[in-house]
Amino acid sequence: MPTTSTVPVSLPLPSVPRRRRSREEVEAAVPVEGPKRVLLAAPRGYCAGVDRAVIAVEKALEHYGPPVYVRKQIVHNLHVVSTLEERGAIFVDETDEAPEGALVIFSAHGVSPAVVRSAEQRGLRTIDATCPLVTKVHREAVRFAKDDYEILLIGHEGHEEVEGTYGEAPEHTQIVNSPEEADTIQVRDPDKLIWLSQTTLSVDETMETVRRLRERFPNLQDPPSDDICYATSNRQAAIKKIAPQADLVIVVGSANSSNSVRLVEVALEYGAKASHRVDFASQVDESWFEGVATVGVTSGASVPEVLVRDVLSLLADYGYGQVDEVVTAEEDILFSLPKELRATLKEKGDSSRGLGGRGARPAR
């Protein structure tokens, strides 16, 4: 006789599209005082390192054909990843998930020497799309470890970039996750100490961490040049200028994008009444507009401009048609494509795209 299970079974409910309230309904709920406007941050979106990495995958697919394997997300953006997947890119967590002899691209966040060795041992062909600014930090770690310095790496443990940098000199490196950790960390020799950082951190929080470290270790040395990348600094500077005037700030970017998440935090710290992160315009909640006259808009360094345009279009539907761009810096940095790819492009006579950076490609 069959038995009847008493264990409850949870079945997913079918998703029902949410009815978005109209502009009139939102304005009736909480009237807006004053004219509606958008303050659009500039710079925003793609940086040179992200652009370079995305082009690398696109060109690899074009010249080698799919599948092209990519270790981790090439950049931290859902739209970019899904678009490349549709074209034949396969994203894997580790190189051993790719078949022997396959072409594997290392993401913009960088990899440790152990990952490179693993790929070599399995006979994988590789293209290193690590952002040159991340590579700079790797080289600093190698240099100072060779000179027997202890490295305090300011960053988020578990982030791909931090894992790669730490892997260059694990026996010489400690990760400092926050200003609070700076108060308790113990070091081997306080007179032979240097700090490095993840490139996508909050500038203010990083400097606070360094301040606390230096209070305890006065001889702590600075890196030869800023580790926080120009794009992260510039995007934070732009939102700092906008935030005090904004009733609401919308940051376009993915949840695993460190620099996008930091922009939400910076907006709130510098006076925005509310700040939210979205991947897509469809995730914007129209209730955020209740009583809101000024909306600030920006995007993380891995976000294509088309996603920002979608948000601006939605805002226009709710009466925020006036868009004033707030420019705090001009970016003209370009990076050459990875050397492994440049050789192939030269061989095939492809001169259509050899650089990555702002203004080097049309908005997509």
Structural description of this entry:
The protein is an alpha/beta fold and 364 residues long. It has three domains: 114 residues, 4-hydroxy-3-methylbut-2-enyl diphosphate reductase, catalytic domain (Cobalt-precorrin-4 Transmethylase, domain 1, 3-Layer(aba) Sandwich), CATH 3.40.1010; 112 residues, Rossmann fold (3-Layer(aba) Sandwich), CATH 3.40.50.11270; 84 residues, 3-Layer(aba) Sandwich (Cobalt-precorrin-4 Transmethylase, domain 1), CATH 3.40.1010. Helices cover 35% and strands 17% of the residues. The chain has a five-stranded parallel beta sheet, sandwiched between helices. Strands 3-2-4-5 form a four-stranded parallel beta sheet. Strand 6, helix 6 and strand 7 form a beta-alpha-beta unit. Helix 5 packs parallel to helix 6 and helix 9 packs parallel to helix 10.
Average pLDDT, all residues = 92
Which CATH architecture of the largest domain? 3-Layer(aba) Sandwich
Question: What string, H for helix and E for strand, traces the elements in order?
Answer: HEHEHEEHEHEHEHEHHEHEEHEEHE
Q: Order of strands across the biggest sheet?
A: 10-9-11-1-12
Residue windows where pLDDT falls under 50 for at least 5 positions: 1-14, 359-364
